[in-house]
């Protein structure tokens, strides 16, 4: 840690509550991996223990189970803990979860994750997709927003019955250019670094609108290439739109360009290349992993754990 950052962190210790001071003392004293994971999970609920079944905020403590505090909702009468309703509910070996978070942070293969955590390869694979299920890539895009689609080779990796010859280690399409063998992925980014992405069922104005509608601020200026799906999409969204005719050599017009989002495409392709052919059915999970660890330099294991629970990780602008 940089000395200046450390001094700034140290200056804030006086503002900690008694409970936070006790937790800090435990961390500095060196608590067990299981205790560290449980503390991180309990912290996700904060002071308010809202029922995941009915949303009621009134509950009473009911002891502990498997190290986690249990509560009983006074509204619906059901019991819950900090993991109820999350993809990590009923998952075992909590003491390995921070190690697995570090594995996600470092973009390790399934075999490397299994070795780090001391679990079977099948367990590491299952954990990967359970941890990534709740990770969010939704952000609000403001100001100049670039949008463009890229294509990823369709993969049926893991399927037992194929109607074509299996490709090895990712392989390549049988046809050049765009075809049914390519899966479209929409990427949109503003100049602050906020980014959203999604697998598209098809490249149509309606499909693009579904992705951009919850993400675009009303002040957004949508900048795209000359694809004819974007003008009706921008009109339906009620935002301004500028198109760059790249086929005519117009790549930059003043401060307008789509170089930011194109660089995101390249980073995504680099991120996916390491895994040598991502199954299309898991591509959404890998997009969430890309937002968690591919766009940011090595998030902490706790940030990965928080993302798995459904908390938005606090990370800065992508590097």
Overview of this protein structure:
With 319 residues, this protein is of the alpha/beta class. It is 36% helix and 15% strand. The strands form two sheets. Strands 6-5-4-7-8 form a five-stranded mixed beta sheet, with helices on both faces. A three-stranded antiparallel beta sheet has the order 1-2-3, covered by helices on one side. α4 (97-105) runs antiparallel to α5 and α4 crosses α11 (301-309). The radius of gyration is 23 Å and the shape is globular. The model has no long low-confidence stretch (mean pLDDT 85).
Secondary-structure topology with pairs:
Layout: H1 3-11, H2 18-29, H3 33-45, E1 59-65, E2 68-73, E3 79-80, H4 97-105, H5 110-117, H6 121-132, E4 144-153, E5 182-190, E6 195-199, H7 205-212, E7 221-224, H8 230-237, E8 240-243, H9 259-273, H10 283-294, H11 301-309
